[in-house]
Design a protein that fits this description.
This protein has 250 residues and is α+β, with helices and mostly antiparallel strands. The protein has three domains: 3-50, Uridine Diphospho-n-acetylenolpyruvylglucosamine Reductase, domain 2 (2-Layer Sandwich); 63-162, Uridine Diphospho-n-acetylenolpyruvylglucosamine Reductase, domain 3, CATH 3.30.465.10; 169-249, CO dehydrogenase flavoprotein, C-terminal domain (Enolase-like, domain 1), CATH 3.30.390. Helix content is 28%, strand content 28%. The strands form three sheets. The protein has a five-stranded antiparallel sheet. The chain has a four-stranded antiparallel sheet with strand order 9-10-11-12. Strand 4 and strand 5 (67-73) form a beta hairpin. Helix 4 runs antiparallel to helix 7 (121-128).
């Protein structure tokens, strides 16, 4: 069994930040991703830093001039997105596909971002919407920049994106072994206005990947596994990109 050296439940971000600098610190939000990782490593020593009490939950709409953005606190649960009418429909639908329903009331947005899973269709949706994230004591940065970083650090406090306009459009398509399985490859598309769009893909790189032009598909070099070879994943990416782009431009 892993050795849990201590359990901390800080009451402020500053306290959490200080505790997170400890050698064996492990941050948890809902714990659905991190706790299984800790338990699967018998030789690991961990100091659990539980972020539930530092006030990072909530979904708000913020206006600055003519621009309106939606801000989601990092400790908001996936189920909070599903049940909130301010969240764009595409993100609500993607949230229902992120984890089993029994875990969506526990899993947090911050944990989903920090995990940077290549298979996270919700994270892919945020990426397609040009979301930005806030890290404690740092400025807002593009989600894509965070995902592409080799070793990101810091406590994620929130994610935000511009509220889609009436002219915007979004859609997604997936391919899996069964409708209930995690997709082998998925594509989420977003267009602010007809003719200009971008597509985010899962299952083709170590993290969800943003594609802004069709010729970028040739640069993909996905890792194959028992669910699909590298060539098969590249083929699926091309097919799904085409489906999404045609739907956005219809």
């Amino acid at each position: 069994m892993p050795s849990v050296l201590a359990y901390h439940r800080p009451q402020s971000l500053d306290e959490a930040q200080k505790l997170s600098s400890e050698k064996n610190a492990v941050l948890i939000g809902g714990g659905t991703l991190v706790i299984p990782q800790v338990l699967s490593n018998p030789s690991r020593e961990a100091e659990i830093i539980d972020l539930q009490s530092i006030g990072l939950a909530g979904i708000t709409s913020e206006s600055e001039g003519s621009e309106t953005s939606i801000k989601i606190g990092a400790m908001s649960r996936l189920s909070d997105l599903i049940n909130n009418d301010e969240i764009p429909l595409v993100l609500r639908e993607l949230s229902t596909k992120e984890l089993p329903s029994t875990l969506r009331t526990q899993a947090t947005i911050g944990g989903t971002i920090a995990e940077r899973s290549s298979e996270s269709i919700l994270l892919s949706g945020f990426l397609a919407l040009n979301a930005e994230i806030q890290i404690h004591e740092k400025n807002w940065i593009p989600l894509n920049e965070y995902l592409q970083s080799s070793s990101p650090t810091g406590i994620i406090t929130a994610i935000k994106f511009s509220s889609p306009s009436h002219d915007s459009n979004s859609c997604f398509h997936t391919v899996g072994r069964t409708p209930m399985d995690v997709p082998i490859v998925s594509a989420v598309g977003y267009s602010e206005s007809k003719g200009k769009f971008q597509v985010s893909l899962t299952g083709v790189a170590e993290v969800p990947t943003l594609i802004t032009a069709a010729d970028e598909l040739a640069n993909l070099n996905p890792q194959g596994d028992f669910r699909g070879s590298s060539d098969y994943r590249k083929h699926l990416a091309s097919v799904l990109y085409k489906r999404v782009s045609e739907e956005l431009q219809a």
